[in-house]
Predict the 3D structure of the following.
Amino acid sequence: MTTRSAEGTNNNDAEQGEPILRVVPRPGDINANGHIFGGWVLSQMDIAAGIVASRRADGPVATVAIEAMKFIGPILLHDVISVFARIERTGRTSMGIRIEVIASRNRGTEEVMVTEALFTFVALDENNRPRALPAA
Ligand SMILES: CC(C)(COP(=O)(O)OP(=O)(O)OC[C@H]1O[C@@H](n2cnc3c(N)ncnc32)[C@H](O)[C@@H]1OP(=O)(O)O)[C@@H](O)C(=O)NCCC(=O)NCCS
């Protein structure tokens, strides 16, 4: 688990500049342990990756794979989560997007890396078939 203070250094691979999303979980997102459902954070990660992929593809995209999903630490009620995304690789039609989620708690004095994964998105044409990515 990566922890840091609000004044700490940036040591997260995908974290560059502003997060793609900042979200606060709701009480209905809690599981029986009092933590936030893994499926909830996964959907936030998919949304953030989709935003980045769609920008790069300049059009529609779809998630084709999620790999290396790691739930490193729990997300708690009252955390503010920040979802960071970075394009790690591009192919002919696909993009690998590294996602990292940081939970900010105790009024932002503590920041904890809670989840990371590699999402693969494919650019789609009008028939929902793979489309070559435009030049970067
Ligand atoms: C996305 C989709 C159109 C791709 O169709 P496909 O016939 O698998 O396409 P291809 O085999 O030509 O692969 C297209 C690209 O995806 C990559 N790819 C396909 N499956 C992959 C996988 N499991 N992991 C990583 N990359 C994969 C290929 O390597 C290729 O990349 P490249 O062009 O950069 O070399 C099709 O799989 C699909 O519609 N999937 C459902 C998407 C969806 O609904 N997502 C939301 C789920 S809720």
Summary: Helices lie at 38-57. The CA atoms of residues 91 and 127 lie 20 Å apart. Residues 1-12 have pLDDT under 50 and may be disordered.
